[in-house]
Write a structure and sequence with these properties.
Layout (H helix, E strand, L loop, with lengths): L11 H30 L5 E7 L5 E7 L13 H4 L2 H9 L6 H6 L4 E3 L14 H4 L7 E3 L12 H14 L2 H17 L19
Parallel strand pairs: 3-4
Antiparallel strand pairs: 1-2
């Protein structure tokens, strides 16, 4: 099932809106609680926003709950130094992803698809890796239920491209169900030796 014609993804938007409608109230209630905890434990701002590449690489502003302490101006700091135990818990439970429901409702993201990476990575992709942007970026995806952040970059790209070539409504439902198990088991939250995951530095 290959090809990137717009008609191929006809089912994506209806499925996303149906899932969003079912999750809006419980997702919102949990989000209010998490927002309060972030305010108490990490202070302001509560939300972390960053431009990420969306469908066909068009930038959009990703919204998440903040999990790290702010950087001190003029002082270099690592992710491990800024990531508190509370922030690590938010990441392990994926509660930091809750605000991305707004990105889904706006049509900038899907519940399932390749994770939106950093804009600076775009110039490092080869032609095959660029194909991951033929699908809307997702909150979860095939790569996330097959290693999450513990997977290597080649494994993540392979998972993303497999999804692009094999996406279907039934596969999306399967990935959503598998995601619940991955999050509950808190597997693959970070790459070994890294607070989160190693930066992508190209294919050399």
């Amino acid at each position: 099932m290959t090809g990137a014609g717009p008609g191929r993804w006809w089912w994506k938007r209806p499925l996303d809106l149906a899932v969003a409608a079912g999750l809006l109230v419980p997702w919102g209630l949990v989000g209010v609680i998490v927002a309060g905890l972030v305010r108490i434990r990490l202070g302001r701002p509560i939300l972390f926003t960053q431009e990420r590449p969306g469908l066909h690489g068009v930038p959009f502003r990703l919204i998440k709950f903040r999990t790290m302490l702010p950087e001190n101006a003029g002082e270099p700091s690592t992710d491990s130094a800024r990531l508190t135990p509370f922030g690590s818990w938010l990441r392990a439970t994926s509660l930091d992803e809750l605000p991305e429901l707004w990105n889904v409702i706006r049509g900038e993201m899907s519940f399932v698809g390749p994770r939106p990476l950093l804009l600076e990575y775009l110039v490092l992709y080869d032609a095959n890796q660029t194909r991951r942007m033929e699908a809307l970026p997702g909150i979860t995806g095939w790569a996330q239920v097959n290693g999450r952040n513990a997977a290597s970059w080649p494994e993540r790209f392979a998972g993303d491209l497999w999804y692009v070539d094999n996406a279907s409504p039934w596969l999306d439902v399967k990935i959503l169900v598998l995601t619940v198990g991955v999050v509950l088991r808190k597997r693959g939250v970070n790459q070994p030796g890294h607070a989160t995951m190693e930066r992508f530095r190209g294919n050399d």
